[in-house]
Each structure stands twice: as C-alpha cells, then as structure tokens.
Design brief:
The chain has 153 residues and is α/β, with parallel strands linked by helices. 40% of the residues lie in helices and 19% in strands. A five-stranded mixed β-sheet has the order 2-1-3-4-5.
Length: 153
C-alpha cells in the first residue's frame, strides 16, 4: 500500500468510529506530504459535542493549527472520506491547505464539485489542488449508505 492509500484508510477508520458514535460517518486526516507525518485527524462529532461546526475537516483543521501553532497550514494535504460542504471548503481555504483529496462525492451537501463550488468563486482567495481518490469512492459511499439505511430502519 502506498502512503496516500494509508491516509485514506485511516480517514475511513475515523469515519467508522463516527458512525459507531451515531454521527454521520466522515473522517479526515491532515498530512505533511514532505515528511508523510500525520499532523492531525478528525471525525464527525456535531451531535456528541453539541457543535454544528464539528465536521471531520474542521476538527482536523483545528487540531492541525494547534499542533503547528499556526492558523496557516500551507503545503499540508487533507484526506477526507466525503466531499467537503461549503463551510468546510471555506475553512480549507482560510487554512491555506495545499491539497484536498476526497473519496465520495456529495451531490446534496457538497461544496467543492457540487453546490456552490466554493473554490470556483471569485471571492475565494486560496484554492487547494483538488483530487478525488477514485479507488475509495465506493467504500466511502457504501459506508454512508449503510449508515443512513440503518437510521431509517
């Protein structure tokens, strides 16, 4: 396995932890691509901590900022299991993350390739390199489908 696969594998593990806690299964890992060091990670937690902003990406960005003692995370890569929403895309831009790698697309709530397409707006001042982990799309999407199916049962 290559390290990029390892990082998305870890993000998927975090997503499973979120699901086990009753949260929407999304996980995120922030990595320094120069050293392959995992700088921070997060999983969805809005319900458990009563914070609507506690999306996996925001949790990881906050942790990375604290770990790096800097609100700018220039050059770091964010691996996330689901296309970020507009709020998370804004945080990615403000943090100046260098690369965004996501697995499943989110046609209903996404803000990168769907919805507002945050990084394409003229008011967006920082745009990361954006990639989709094609090899993990189905795994991440199935995790979400299973979660929501179980909630409706």
């Amino acid at each position: 396995m290559n390290t990029a696969t390892d990082h998305m594998t870890r993000a998927l593990e975090l997503a499973r932890q979120a699901a086990a806690a009753g949260e929407v299964p999304v996980g995120a890992v922030i990595v320094d691509p120069r050293t392959d060091e995992v700088v921070a990670e997060g999983r969805n937690g809005p319900i458990g901590i009563h914070d609507p902003t506690a999306h996996a990406e925001i949790v990881a960005i906050r942790q990375a900022g604290m770990n790096r003692r800097n609100y700018r995370l220039t050059g770091l890569s964010l691996y996330v299991t689901l296309e970020p929403c507009a709020m998370c895309a804004g945080a990615i831009s403000f943090a100046r993350l260098g690369r965004l790698i996501f697995a499943a697309e989110d046609p209903k709530g996404g803000g990168v390739v769907h919805g507002p397409r945050f990084f394409e707006q003229p008011t967006c001042h920082w745009r990361p390199e954006i990639m989709q982990d094609q090899g993990r799309v189905e795994e991440a999407a199935q995790l979400l489908r299973d979660f929501f199916r179980s909630r409706r049962a």
